[in-house]
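Quick one:
INPUT:
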């Protein structure tokens, strides 16, 4: 083969590898973005968060930006939805090496998707939920809902420590909008699992505003960390999405919130929702 042929073959192979790796590959030599004034210098005990990080979303700096958003609040536990395993791995690494925040991670993948998460056709990346926790996690359970709707959906549950106390933590993502009956069935499955625990934190994107019938089972078990958000008078609920709806929740069972905040993000169509819990 001529030198020109070798160069063409090398270029073709590089392009093929880039396509197979997909959009979830972490960037090389990432640079830490500045944190907001007053950002914590370490993990904040008793702080939890939930964030639908958006997939697919474009941009080579997505994972560094996502890590920066999380580091700005440094929750003890955070649940991520629409999460590819390799994206979460990159976020976790950026949190540690750029911001000094060390997390354990557990995955609740419900879908293997090359188009969403890259990889190779015979080994596509995992897509679903993930939980990052400063403390080790045990008793991991991953469950797919019997009917995911237009896309596979499920929940991930672990036992960990929040604020020095053991608690069961759930991360979930319910069916997309305009699938009310499907979400109602999913909530029944989730609520039955949550009801087994006296102390539980349920984090996730429920794709439903507070007063909808499909969330009745969750309201019967738990309160939202937002003290102004209680159906039927749910007008005080802070929106958590770009379309100004509240879809993202920190549900608490046997746990009390001191307050909740919502941080709009340039890296997702959902906001990062964080709550500080009473000791």
């Amino acid at each position: 083969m001529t030198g020109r042929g070798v160069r063409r073959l090398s270029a073709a192979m590089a392009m093929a590898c880039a396509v197979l790796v997909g959009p979830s590959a972490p960037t090389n030599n990432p640079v830490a973005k500045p944190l907001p004034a007053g950002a914590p210098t370490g993990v904040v005990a008793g702080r939890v968060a939930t964030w639908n990080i958006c997939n697919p979303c474009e941009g080579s700096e997505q994972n560094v930006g996502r890590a920066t958003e999380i580091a700005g609040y440094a929750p003890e536990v955070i649940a991520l939805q629409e999460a590819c395993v390799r994206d979460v791995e990159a976020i976790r690494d950026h949190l540690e090496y750029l911001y000094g925040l060390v997390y354990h991670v557990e995955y609740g993948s419900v879908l293997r998707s090359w188009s969403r998460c890259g990889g190779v056709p015979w080994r596509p990346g995992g897509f679903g939920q993930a939980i990052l926790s400063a403390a080790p996690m045990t008793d991991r359970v991953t469950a797919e809902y019997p009917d995911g709707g237009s896309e596979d959906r499920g929940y991930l549950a672990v036992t960990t420590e929040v604020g020095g106390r053991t608690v069961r933590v759930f991360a979930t993502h319910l069916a997309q909008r305009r699938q009310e009956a499907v979400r109602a069935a999913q909530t029944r499955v989730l609520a039955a699992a949550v009801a087994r625990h006296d102390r539980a934190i349920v984090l996730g994107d429920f794709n439903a505003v507070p007063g909808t019938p499909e969330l009745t089972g969750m309201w019967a078990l738990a309160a939202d960390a937002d003290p102004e958000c209680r159906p039927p008078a749910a007008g005080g609920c802070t929106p958590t999405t770009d379309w100004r709806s509240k879809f993202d929740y920190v549900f608490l069972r046997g746990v009390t919130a001191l307050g909740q905040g919502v941080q709009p993000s340039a890296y997702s169509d959902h906001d990062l929702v964080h709550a500080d819990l009473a000791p």
